Amino acid sequence: MLFVVGASQGSAVKADGASVVIYGTKVLTMRSSVGSTGPKARATILAANIQKTSKTGDVRVENEGKNFLIVVDGRLVLTVTKPEAKLNSSSPQTLANLWARNIRKALLTPPLRIDTDSLRVPLGASRVILASGAQFGQAQIQATDSKVLKVGRAPNGIAYKAIGFGQTEVVVSVGSIVKTISVSVMPMGANLPQNLVAIVSGNPASVDTVEGAIESAVRTQLGADPKSELKIKFPQATQVLPGESRRYTAQVRAVGSEVLPAEGPVFVTVKNVALGRKPESELWYCNEPENLKKPGLLFVAPLRPETPSRMLYHHINMMSRPLVVMVEAINDSDQPALLMVIPGDSKPDKNPVLAGVQAADQFMKGWTMSSGEVISIPPRSRLPIAMRRIASGQTMSGLCYLRLLDDGPDQVTIRTEARPPFPLDAKWLAATQSGTPWRHIGAQRMNNLDHDPILPSIHIYPNPYKEENGTYQVGGKYAFFRIGERPIARADKLDKLSGNFGVTYTIKALVENPTAFASEIEVVFEASAGYSGAVFYVNGQYVKTPLLQPKTEAQIAKFTVEPGAFKNLSIITVPLSGSSYPATLTIRPVDVGAQAKIVVPKR
Questions:
Q1: Is it true that the peptide bond before 409 is cis, omega within 30 degrees of 0?
Q2: What does the alpha-carbon distance between residue 144 and residue 512 come to, in Å, rounded to a whole number?
Q3: Residue-wise DSSP of 212-239
Q4: What is the pTM of this model?
Q5: Domains of the chain from N-terminus onward
Q6: Contact at 8 Å (CB) between 323 and 417?
Q7: What count of other Cβ atoms lies within 10 Å of the Cβ of residue 291?
Q8: Counting beta carbons within 10 angstroms of the beta carbon of residue 440, is it exposed (0 to 12), middle (13 to 18) or buried (19 or more)?
Q9: Distance between CA atoms of 287 and 299, rounded to whole angstroms?
Q10: Per-residue pLDDT tens for 177-203?
């Protein structure tokens, strides 16, 4: 069904008050009278003369004494006198030339002029397509789909309103002349600006956490069309103190072939809810099998409210083709769940030791500040905590803190699974290339497989903490601390965790100097059991060792103890996936360890 606006009738040349209008264009305005004939009457007479005379659009100016004549197609239509010119602030010749030029241009106007041949407009747009021409006033205007576009006539063209998504054509016809305009009514890439909220916790929430929360909010909360691609300029983040809220502005451009581009600010308020430190009650050890030879389920455990767990995962793809390993939090309830995550996830690497070090490097920096994101998991949904596509021979390694908050479901299920590769769109591909995939794809609706009952894994280890104490006196025996030597017990008491991978070690050491001389002391890490790397906090100073060959050392601290003085040391570390344990920390005089590698502390 066509929506039609009928043709209007009228002269091509007409008077509008004291002005003469040709095909909709004002060409001149009379200001003087001739005898009893005033400007308006003169404009009416002139319009009629031009209407009768004009055939070819030949317009000339001729001189006659002090006056100048305007001749159209060989017939005099107007004499420009000195009084008329004076009232127009001009001379007779200049004014005659100007009016003649305007008349000529208007008479030579094409019958129908529409420069636009296609449009992409948003729903609800109410605008005008510029149109003109000698016969536009007599043209018919119609939309081929009245459910998409409503059209009408405007003084300067074609008025339209977009009332439905889809494609249509605006058809403008007069006589044998037909012009068509293709119109697509499309969604906007996004409606901007928008206001979003991101929740974090930490003492304080670190810059990395705040940056991640902003990214997560923009990528997963923004009201954008699913077919749009987001181009985001993120703001520079800062630490956010406990109980504090800060507002950041991201600049977003939403584009795509099936949407209209949108650009504008997105305001993200980051709130630090200050949950406080709550130590992990269990270590979840997802490492059996370490060498993956087929897809399958790797780990399952229930995470209950305010019973945090630390999860270690470390797997090597021994297949000839890639695998996708996913760690997910599944909310199989009718309530939303709030999950605090402190991530630590490495890029897949052929070197298992390097992968383990990279994961712990990220985790430890957040864990010491209790700095993490608080993520909402809607009812009947699953959240990707880690998701990596690992090629043959590559290792995926991670260490993370998981805490389910109160006022939600009784539990969420944490599940790790190795899957064959599956088709990935741009967002999912970005998620597999990130250590924080939820920031790219957010929570997903559950599928039928997510409902299948599965027994929890056996590799659950309560109280994943070790504390070692010792004293070193200058001039006496060195102080040795073995890391990963006395394994913690599994929850079922049927086995122990060899190497204590993922367990927090806190080493409290007292260094005393009873001598009469100042002594330079060092703390060194030895890769006693094999190729290894390590990370430490030494009195709050972060240190990462290089990768060490078996039996080689790295210095992690050096200091001077004055005569009769002492120094307390607090050293925190975690045995890392891929490395070899037990390993050894030694406190001794510097001169003995001259061959140890020097490590520059890294913050």
A1: no
A2: 92
A3: HHHHHHHHHHS-B-TT-EEEEEPPPP--
A4: 0.79
A5: 3-107 (no CATH), 118-186 (2.60.40.1080), 194-272 (2.60.40), 282-460 (no CATH), 464-598 (2.60.120)
A6: no
A7: 11
A8: buried
A9: 9
A10: 899 999 999 999 999 999 999 999 999
